[in-house]
Design brief:
By secondary structure, this protein is an alpha/beta fold. The protein folds into two domains: 153 residues, Rossmann fold (3-Layer(aba) Sandwich), CATH 3.40.50; 150 residues, Isopropylmalate Dehydrogenase. It contains twelve helices and eleven strands. An eleven-stranded mixed β-sheet has the order 3-2-1-4-11-10-5-6-9-7-8, with helices on both faces.
Amino acid sequence: MSLLGFGALYQLADQLPRPLPVVAAGGADRTVLEAMSLAHRRGWIDPILTGSLPEMQALAKGLDIDVTEFRLIDTDDPAAAAVAEVKAGRARMLMKGQIATPSLMKAVLNRDAGLRTDRCICQVVLMEIARDSRRFLLADTGITIQPTLEQKADILRSLVHVANALRDGLGNEPPRIGIMSATEKTTDSMSDTLEAAELARLNSVGEIKDCVVQGPLSFDLAYASDAGEKKRIEGTVVGAADGMLFPNLLAANLTVKAIMYTADCRFGGVLCGTACPVVFMSRADSTETRLNSLAFTLRMLTARDDVARKPPDVSDLASRSQGTNHELP
């Protein structure tokens, strides 16, 4: 299958029938204010910001950003305040702003007032490589340090869900998911290869549905078809992975950052497994990356709730999804 790129996601967001209320936890940050302002001007969102009111107002004034149509919430606990807005129905989506991940996750995971579900929470990144006209998903790049086999199966489920939300409408083939490792061979000395093979087996017998799973696969095999030819490795996923499930946070985070800082690429991230989609990237990210992540997460929300005005000509949008380089944790 083929995934929509960021150009298409921007077009889809532009076609929303009305702006959606989005709350940013930690609004006293240049990139947060700029991204929220740009998204507001495009008609995507009605911004809500939590944090120190004097700091947010002073920063907005210094950046010449008009926040008169924003709702600013003065609080010493921006994460809890932002989550409360979602729980109360005053915001449809949460955005990670200038706040540390542990602080945000403490509020998200609060048993009584948070956004936790029975799902494994994970970060899914959409990566778009201009040189190769390739778009693919990576998980879990931000949350679960050392996932169990059961958690990996649930993260895989999130990858499939995201891939289907980003489907460009051409054909109905299932998402192709590579289970990543340092080698394509199973070995007792690398337990992740054994779990990769087990996930592939569960897919082959129908216990993991609606996708094609192959693993273990090294990154080159999942990404480039010529690597499969050279190594004489075949399979539906070889050179064509729509999603990559990594063995642990270390592998996923290092991989995604290496691509981000060395390749001509665009990317954005979303938190899955929560009661609502969460725009989730790094505090070090650029305004462009935050806007990418907003467009990406809005697509996840509208695909789930069917609030988009009408189905666009996604084949035309896909043809316009190549664009300038924009900029995760």
